[in-house]
Design brief:
By secondary structure, the chain is α/β, with parallel strands linked by helices. Helices cover 54% and strands 16% of the residues.
Length: 403
């Protein structure tokens, strides 16, 4: 039997119709299920975020509360104002002020500029104390009512560039250079180049004053120095750039600086050790200057007393400064040192007793020590004259006997 084409296609059409009826409910159910899955997730996220933030913020809010007691505990109880030259600020005060604040809760405000500005600020009451590398200048009435307390010893050092081959300078050469009588490094054993002298321009600067007082016995001595700078810091910077430069600074400010060469003086290396034993001749006291009637005079004296504590002394030594009490032998032997320098710079070398008397006469002509030195010099001259006469008499007697 033959089946026509339409009937042969009938089972396939029925199958497709049934399949369509079976698939339609499944595909229609999917859109309804998706919103059910996504809505709860979207609702949970906003609720979780606000709840978590306050919990995390609570510990952070507690931190300032713990920091406040620490800040209150470190607050200084008192403040002092210090003013002085740059050399004293860097060498003596910069680290000492920090240590003093930590230990004593007293803040020291540093306002460095120049020696005279510091001394005058104390006179006027705008500073509680000052730093200086020189004692009071007798020709300035502004300084007559102040107290200069020595607190340390520092070395005065002649500095040049490391490129300069000269490593040693004599006291007489320092005298000659400042007087303008030696103006070429060849005269000091160096290259055939002009000596470029540098100095601090400020009047009565502590470093310049201290050196000139030792060499000339006059801290305000006029010298042949054409290149002048505002302070020792600027002077040092200039010398580092000039292989022919020469100037003076302090051991506490220059030790360990690879850009500077510290010249030996009379063959002695400048150091704390050579200052301590007096073999390095160019040492000077470092002073704290105050008014006895100043409003904070008692607090300044507390600071001066504190400088004798072990921690303060250790810091001074670290800065290449010798605590003053550790160098009292230097004070006792000062007359001998002055006599030696006098002998070195004098055009006609003097015997030690005469040099000592000459040096002391310039400094304190009416003091008992000066009178004693003069007597020793006179006795020395008398002994030499007597010996000379005795020798002449003996010679005359020998000639008479031979005749």
């Amino acid at each position: 039997m033959t089946i026509s084409r339409p009937f042969r296609a009938l089972p396939r059409a029925l199958f497709l119709a049934c399949a369509a009826c079976w698939l339609i409910p499944l595909s229609a159910a999917e859109p309804a299920a998706k919103p059910a899955d996504t809505k709860p997730a979207a609702a949970v996220k906003p609720a979780a975020a606000p709840a978590a933030k306050p919990a995390a913020a609570k510990p952070a809010a507690a931190k300032p509360a713990t920091a406040k007691p620490a800040a209150a505990a470190s607050k200084p109880n008192q403040s002092l104002v210090w003013r002085g030259d740059i050399a004293s600020a860097r060498g003596l005060m910069s680290e000492l002020a920090k240590l003093y604040e930590r230990e004593k809760k007293v803040r020291i405000q540093l306002t460095p500029f120049s020696t005279v500005s510091g001394i005058d600020a104390v006179t006027q009451g705008s500073a509680d104390f000052a730093g200086s590398l020189r004692p009071n200048h007798p020709k300035r009435n502004e300084e007559s009512g102040l107290t200069f307390v020595p607190v340390a010893w520092d070395g005065l050092v002649m500095i040049t560039s490391p490129a300069n081959p000269v490593s040693n300078i004599s006291i007489k050469d320092i005298w000659r250079v400042y007087y303008g009588r030696a103006d070429n490094w060849k005269l000091l054993g160096g290259n055939d180049k002009a000596i470029n002298m540098y100095a601090v321009a400020g009047p009565l600067d502590g470093v310049e004053y201290a050196l000139r007082w030792l060499i000339f016995r006059n801290g305000d001595q006029r010298v042949a120095v054409p290149r002048v700078y505002l302070n020792t810091s600027k002077l040092e910077e200039a010398v580092t750039l000039d292989p022919s430069g020469l100037g003076v600074s302090t051991l506490s400010n220059t030790a360990g600086n690879p850009k500077l060469k510290l010249l030996n003086v009379e063959g002695v290396v400048p150091s704390t050790a050579s200052v301590r034993d007096g073999s390095y001749a160019l040492y000077t006291p470092v002073y704290v200057v105050l008014r006895e009637d100043g409003s904070n005079a008692a607090a300044v004296k507390d600071f001066i007393a504190w400088l004798e504590t072990p921690n303060a002394k250790a810091l001074l030594l670290k800065r290449q400064l010798l605590p003053y009490a550790d160098g009292l032998a230097l004070k006792d032997g000062d007359a001998t040192r002055l006599a030696m320098i006098e002998t070195k710079v004098n055009e006609t070398p003097l015997a030690a007793p005469a040099a000592t008397a000459a040096a002391l006469t310039r400094v304190a002509p009416t003091s008992a020590l000066t009178q004693e030195a003069k007597a020793e010099a006179a006795e020395s001259r008398s002994k030499k004259a007597s010996a000379k006469k005795a020798k002449a008499a003996a010679g005359a007697a020998a000639e008479a006997g031979g005749g």
